[in-house]
Write a structure and sequence with these properties.
- The protein is of the alpha/beta class.
- Among the domains are: 75 residues, no CATH class; 194 residues, Alpha-Beta Barrel (TIM Barrel).
- Helix content is 42%, strand content 20%.
- It contains 13 helices and 16 strands.
- The strands form four sheets. Strands 8, 9, 10, 13, 14 and 15 form a six-stranded parallel β-sheet that branches. A four-stranded antiparallel β-sheet has the order 1-2-3-4, with helices on one face. A three-stranded antiparallel β-sheet has the order 5-6-7.
- Helix 5 runs parallel beside helix 7.
- The termini are far apart.
- Bound molecules: zinc ion (ZN).
- Zinc ion binds next to strand 8.
């Protein structure tokens, strides 16, 4: 009997226990994931409970994590919960380890695209990023602005479209078919804006140094050039246009137009137009008369838009960098047109000092055309503009 009994037990074991083990074996992962789901649910609930005083502005599941953002008094708190481990982690955890350097190189590239050099220089590096937020199709990086001189009013942040960094990130993103990077040359209608203008060029090395400084500061300018100098400095003319600045006429030979016969004035303007067209294929639409000297006869008969200025830096007279900087800072206001000359080292140095200060004060420095567009002003021929302050 003993034998039969033990055989029976063994049989029972084989009949029931093996399928049961197989069953358990099969369902174990399932039970594990149920357990994990429960765990994550609890985790999310705990976070929701402990942030009840804040507004929940995002609660999204990505393929590898759940992402929660709360807002209170404009301070954003966010949580990343890994769906595999159930642990709280950071977004930087999802940058592919072997592409980390590429990721930060791309971020730096975008920083220089958006910000003037003096700002971008001080934001390079992971440790300068205060916070990272995820949105539908972009990462937003918030930067620490401590230590930047001159001191910046605005918050420093970078919108990074997923398309730009998709290869470096280890989670599935929503990609845009169309997107545009942030770009410091996309000027903002709501910001204070001034036009910077330079007379008497083209002037080779000085003009080109000014162009470099403009570029470093995401600024543009209008260069009013003397017709009879243009042919001798074509490369500077190309450089001005390639860098997004513009060129107007400063007469053919820098004489006081009021003291000339009208037909000579007209002939000079035509010549300047022709020379410029031969060099660039483009037309000149603005004129700055030498010495700002103009009368009704000239105004009525020249088919051009006359651009004078509201801030005269007298850089040609004093040739003093600090004085130029101070004059502009004393007189600056939204819509102003600033007059300088690309003839002197002191002027080049003044521009170098001035542009970061103006940026820090919230000004955009642009060409006359850009100023008009930003102020929604249609500039008209036969009119003289000193500024676009009150239109
Ligand atoms: Zn002049």
């Amino acid at each position: 009997m003993k034998n039969i009994n033990s055989k029976f037990v063994l049989m029972l074991f084989l009949v029931f226990a093996i399928p049961f083990c197989l069953y358990i074996g099969k369902t174990k992962p399932h039970m594990q994931s149920v357990f994990m789901e429960e765990n994550i649910k609890n985790k999310v609930q705990t976070i929701l409970d402990s942030n009840k005083d804040k507004e929940l502005i995002s609660n999204r599941s990505y393929d590898k994590f759940i992402y929660l953002v709360f807002n209170k008094d404009n301070v954003k708190t966010h949580y990343v919960i890994d769906t595999k481990t159930g642990e709280e982690t950071s977004l930087f955890y999802y940058i592919k380890e072997e592409r980390k350097e590429d990721f930060f190189n791309k971020i730096n590239e975008l920083l220089y695209l958006k910000y003037p050099k003096f700002i971008a220089d001080s934001l390079v590096g992971e440790e300068k990023i205060k916070d990272v937020l995820l949105f539908d199709n972009e990462l937003v990086l918030y930067y620490d602005k401590e230590g930047i001189e001159p001191k910046i009013e605005e918050d420093l942040l970078l919108h990074v479209n997923y398309n730009e960094v998709k290869d470096y990130l280890d989670f599935t993103l929503l990609l845009d078919s169309k997107y545009e990077n942030e770009n410091g040359y996309h000027y903002d209608k709501t910001k204070k804006t001034v036009a910077l203008t330079f007379d008497d060029g083209p002037n080779g090395e000085k003009t080109n140094r000014i162009l470099d400084i403009l570029e470093e500061n995401k600024a543009h300018a209008t260069f009013f050039m003397v017709g009879n100098r243009m042919e001798y400095d074509k490369s500077t003319i190309y450089n001005v246009l390639n860098k997004g600045s513009e060129i107007g006429s400063h007469s053919y030979n820098h004489k006081n137009l009021k003291r000339m016969k009208l037909e000579d004035v007209l002939e000079g303007e035509e010549k300047t137009q022709e020379i410029f067209k031969n060099i660039t294929g483009k037309e000149i639409i603005y004129t700055r008369v030498p010495y700002g000297s103009i009368n009704d006869n000239i105004k009525e008969n020249l088919n051009t838009i006359f651009i004078n200025w509201s801030i005269d830096t007298e850089d040609w007279l004093h040739r003093n960098k600090d004085r130029v900087v101070q004059t502009v800072l004393n007189e600056i206001e939204d819509g102003a047109i600033i007059l300088m000359h690309d003839l002197y080292d002191s002027t080049v140095e003044a521009v170098d000092t001035l542009l970061p200060i103006l940026y820090a004060q919230g000004y955009q420095v642009v060409s006359v055309s850009e100023l008009a567009a930003l102020k929604s002003v249609q500039l008209e021929q036969h009119k003289v503009y000193h500024s676009l302050k009150e239109i």
